[in-house]
């Protein structure tokens, strides 16, 4: 149920978002399209997000930045979520078992599947580089190895990842 609702909301609000942009906020619509992307190789297969959504929040003094890229199809959804914790400037972040013990860290998840049978691959090793971290834009590169949350025998390799998106 949840993924179907998410798909519906994205399809409902994405055209509104693109049409509501004006030159004072983030440039012409063409500029937004050129600046907004997420792509990677998933087990060697080229993957490009159909949408990229940044969001920021503050939880108990901890700044969290989410960059979500997704690609829905008829019955499936693929997506990558990068979560930056206290990452307010460009930096490189190693993903490993000790990541969450650091003051600044990043986590990553690759998700694929259907509403009934989703697979969440949690990053257990990798590197994320935040190369641009400005007030109105964020971008960088990423690669990681993910292990499926409910079946550790399933793994995924995410390589040559890159992203860029304006921030509101």
């Amino acid at each position: 149920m949840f993924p179907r609702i998410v798909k519906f909301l994205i399809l409902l609000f994405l055209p509104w978002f693109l049409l509501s942009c004006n030159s004072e906020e983030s440039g012409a619509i063409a500029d937004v399209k050129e600046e907004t992307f997420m792509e990677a190789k998933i087990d060697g297969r080229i993957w490009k997000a159909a949408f990229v959504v940044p969001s920021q929040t503050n939880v108990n003094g901890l700044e969290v930045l989410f960059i979500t890229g997704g690609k829905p199809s008829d019955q499936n959804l693929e997506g990558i979520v990068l979560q930056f914790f206290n990452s307010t400037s460009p930096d490189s972040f190693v993903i490993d078992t000790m990541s969450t013990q650091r003051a600044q860290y990043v986590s990553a998840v690759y998700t694929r599947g259907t509403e009934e049978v989703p697979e969440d691959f949690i990053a257990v090793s990798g590197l994320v580089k935040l190369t641009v971290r400005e007030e109105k834009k964020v971008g960088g590169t990423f690669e990681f190895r993910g292990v499926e949350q409910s079946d550790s025998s399933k793994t995924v390799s995410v390589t040559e990842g890159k992203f860029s998106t304006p921030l509101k």
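Helices lie at 2-20, 29-35. The chain has one domain: 37-166.
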